[in-house]
Amino acid sequence: MRHLWLLAISCIGMMSWYALPASADLSGYVQAPDPTFRWKAVNHVTNEAGTVYTLHLTSQKWQNIVWEHTVAVYQAPQVRPQPTMLIWVTGGKPNPGSALLGLELSRLGQTPVAFVHDIPNQPLLDGKREDALIAETFVRYLQSGDENWPLLFPMVKSVVRAMDALQEFARQEWKTELRQFVIAGASKRGWTTWLTASLGDRRVKAIAPMVIDVLNMPEQLTWQLKSLGGYSQMLRDYIDAGLIPMPQTERAKRLWSMVDPYVYRQRLTVPKLLILGSNDPYWSSDALNLYWDSLPGDKWVLYVPNAGHDLRDRQAEPTAQFRRPLFTLGAFLRHYVNDQPMPRLSWQHSSDAATASLSISWQPGTHATARVVVARLWVAEAPTRDFRNALWKVQELAEKTPRHFVASVSIPEKGCRAFFGELEFQENGQTYWLSTQMQIIGTPTKR
Prior knowledge:
This protein is of the alpha/beta class. It has helices at 2-8, 25-31, 96-109, 130-144, 152-174, 188-197, 217-228, 236-240, 250-259, 323-337; strands spanning 38-47, 50-62, 65-75, 84-89, 113-116, 180-186, 204-210, 272-277, 299-304, 344-351, 355-363, 371-382, 393-396, 399-401, 404-410, 415-427, 430-435, 439-443. 26% of the residues lie in helices and 31% in strands. The longest helix has 23 residues, at 152-174.
């Protein structure tokens, strides 16, 4: 399990400024006709592990560069085509690890799963990749004013064109009407996932953005300085390009307003599962608190304890290091394939001079048979509000009243303490986890 998740998780995201209302530029770019779009079926292979279909997609021409993608469709044994499919937004090319992951997600979600590769197409612009490439396109926008430059625009359009192609594929191959998609992706592909949902495309049924804990970007940068004592060096491509700290120009404000998903938050009404690492080196440890309350609609969060940007729980047994994100994403997909909402969690933090408390309640979703088998409190210590290198330790929580758990955490005399709650569910033989927000208490010591 560890290897298939590692081979599939991709890299990172960025920062932002917003002040303008939700911009139509992203929608305009995506909706613009492009005669370059086409797709074709390349082959398919069936064996005891399942069936893999390979498609070749040409999504668009961007800055006179034709974007091409490999789309791999995974169908586990005994899984039938459904009106809802998962799209996993990723980079690179298909490999044995991505095939294992795709087939496992198909099994868990009980629907075919499509991996859309080569998002973004790279290397481009003198050999640049990943964040260096995104940063270069931002700089070129600032220099030229050409609003087609930001790389997130063609990345989102690639996902939309993949939906078009997959609907046609389903009609031809399975004689099935594929109507909706759950979109998922990690880091900059998670950024792409958020922005795809912001379009208001009714085919997007739900989203699962992972390790992109940076919505409300201007506040995030300010909070990084306060919490971490400086900007994360994982953002060095943006720092080196002069994008962090943010330039104080109208065009720079315009750029960040176009690419910060928080600007589009009123459109982000689809159900969403956020999957985050408790020790992700890119973000402030409690970055979620700067945008969670402003997200509309049904929402859930999973913190993977002792995990960084790759979501690998470094304290778990090797075979279990990716169980939380994999099984929880599979459960989320299965619920929305079957039009059955996930269990609903609510929580409340409170404190006095000596103690902080966390109250957690939950209710089963419609037609759900979920039950909580373990409730946990995860706690970590650090001299400051920076918990990226902290060790998270666990304690079980007793049920105070039916579907209600309470935890108390003492406020440290020196330094800081962070904590979050977690409920482990079982449902129809499947296990998954859901979390609360993270709370940090105490007084940082001097750096």
